[in-house]
Amino acid sequence: MKKHFLTSDSIFQFICIVILIALCIVTLYPVWYIMCASFTSNTYLVSHPGVLLRPHGFTLGSYKLALTHPLLLSGYKNILIVLFISLPINILLTLFTGYFLASKKVLFKPVLQFMILFTMFFSGGMIPAYLNVRDLGLYNTLWALILPGALSVYNSIICKTAIEAMPDSLSESASIDGANDITILFRIVLPLIKPTIAVLLLYYGVGHWNAWFNAAIYLQDNEKLPIQNIMRAILIANSNILNSAAAENDQVNQFAESIKYATIMLTTIPILCIYPFLQKYFVKGVMIGAVKG
């Protein structure tokens, strides 16, 4: 009989599997808990705090109440407007900046590159940013959520790395044929770095979707608030935004606990639905150009 003994490799693999399973549980359980809590009756959530493995007293009341709230629907509308306008601007500016950083023969490139990278580590601060937004006439408009964050230097560096991974002969042959930089950028560079562009779309989209601080500072009208600010208002029991609604609707007290989890699910599901379509580009888009031979 041939005996099988545990080797160091098998022990190491077993430990890695156990650690990865534990990390998956730690990562997925909060999502599972929120989903179960959103379908659980408010009475059970209040009287049984702690671990929740399945819905108890299944109800859709919290979802019905959240969906009928006018601010929630306006929050969806506002964030979709921001995404529809912001993402093309974000990608266009990031593509231009990445192409510039990857170019080898540019006048005053070291100085301009330093100025671009300097903004990645230092900023004027919240008060100067607020004064800029106010003086530019962007205060209390959705443009205050679009233009100040139109370009991410970090994402530009990712785009630059992807462009540098391309063979120089492609752009050189196009230049010999008479193509200018705009033609090279949109007809040669852009089609070849589509995985990176998909990743940048995901980065920018998730960033806009989760952002709430700028809206809290720059927006005064509740009807202009994006979805994350509405969710924050619902999560805070004594929020001024929901006080009037709570006074007029007794159902808010009936689903006071579960409506918070239902709102979290309503604001998280869209991103979870989009991610699988971009997953195949994610690893390739981030790693492209990371190793150069």
Short account of what is shown:
The chain is mainly alpha-helical. Helix content is 71%, strand content 0%.
Architecture overview:
The protein has helices spanning 8-38, 42-47, 61-67, 70-102, 109-121, 126-135, 153-164, 168-176, 181-192, 194-210, 213-218, 227-235, 240-248, 251-254, 258-287. The protein contains 15 helices and no strands. The chain folds into two domains: 8-59, no CATH class; 63-287, MetI-like (MetI-like fold, Orthogonal Bundle). The longest helix is centred in the first third of the chain and has 33 residues, at 70-102. Helix content is 71%, strand content 0%. With 293 residues, the chain is mostly helical.
Instruction: Assess the beta-strand content as a share of residues.
Output: under 5%
Radius of gyration, whole Å = 25 Å
Number of helices: 15
Helix content: over 70%
Mean pLDDT reading:
80
**Number of DSSP strand runs:** 0
Count of domain modules: 2
Order of helices and strands: HHHHHHHHHHHHHHH
- CATH fold type of the largest domain: MetI-like fold
Principal-axes geometry comes out as globular
What is the first-to-last residue Cα distance?
A: 49 Å
**Major beta sheet, specifics?**
none
Question: What is the multimeric organization of the chains shown?
Answer: single chain
Under CATH, the homologous superfamily of the largest domain reads MetI-like
Structural class by sheet pairing and helices: mainly alpha
Overall CATH class of the largest domain = Mainly Alpha
Question: Regions with pLDDT < 50 over 5+ consecutive residues?
Answer: 237-248
CATH architecture label of the largest domain = Orthogonal Bundle
